[in-house]
Amino acid sequence: MPTVKINRRLLNRDKLEAEITAEAVRVFAECGYEGTSIATVAENAGLSKQNLMYYFPTKQSLYQRVLDEVLDDWLARMESLAAAHEDPREVLRTYVQAKLKFSRENPWASRVYAMEVISGAPLYGGQIQNRVVPLVRKDIEVFEQWISEGKMAPVNATHLLFAIWAMTQSYADFSAQMALVLNRKQLTKKDFDDAEKVIVDMVLAAISVPQPLSGDDGR
């Protein structure tokens, strides 16, 4: 029985922390780190400031949790790029789809991360250096392997990734501007579907291995 009570208490804590971070993501995205107060997050979460600080003693600890969750999700999607045995076209298609899905379903999280990076990553640079850089290098090694095997055109793999990040994340970070251009309040699922087709076509065109002309024997 005590074990059941402890497990239930842990589940309740996890649920409450998830609710707090969900509210914190929105506030950090709207106000930035400096403009966010623990009191505002607590009020939005329906808690007292003291109650919230029992789970997150400082604003920085709450901010760290928010960015940890964003980065965990992002890196989980990046891991699929390191599948060297797969067709690079399908790997990159799946990656673009996953990145756009994240932008559509988690726009506030994407904006918090973008704001931290734009400001020079003063509070999270170490995590990015330690967690993102090694995985990016691993993915680039796979791209270079594909290139050496003739499965992928000889492109700069680092800048290919930068381009994919920019194209997909902009649909979260700059969605307000896009919606204004499209003359609507917010982007629709069709907008994301249309974006996916364009981005995937561009990426696949960039990595496409030129086919020899008919009758060309390769000499």
TrEMBL record:
Gene3D superfamilies: Homeodomain-like, Tetracycline Repressor, domain 2. SUPFAM superfamilies: Homeodomain-like, Tetracyclin repressor-like, C-terminal domain. One of its GO terms (biological process) is negative regulation of DNA-templated transcription. The keyword Ribonucleoprotein does not apply. PROSITE patterns: HTH_TETR_2 (PS50977). Residues 14-74 form the HTH tetR-type domain. InterPro entries: Homeodomain-like_sf, HTH-type_TetR-like_transc_reg, HTH_TetR, Tet_transcr_reg_TetR-rel_C_sf, Tscrpt_reg_YcdC_C. The keyword DNA-binding applies. Residues 37-56 bind DNA. Keywords: DNA-binding. One of its GO terms (molecular function) is DNA binding. This is TetR family transcriptional regulator. It comes from Duganella alba. The lineage of its organism: Bacteria, Pseudomonadati, Pseudomonadota, Betaproteobacteria, Burkholderiales.
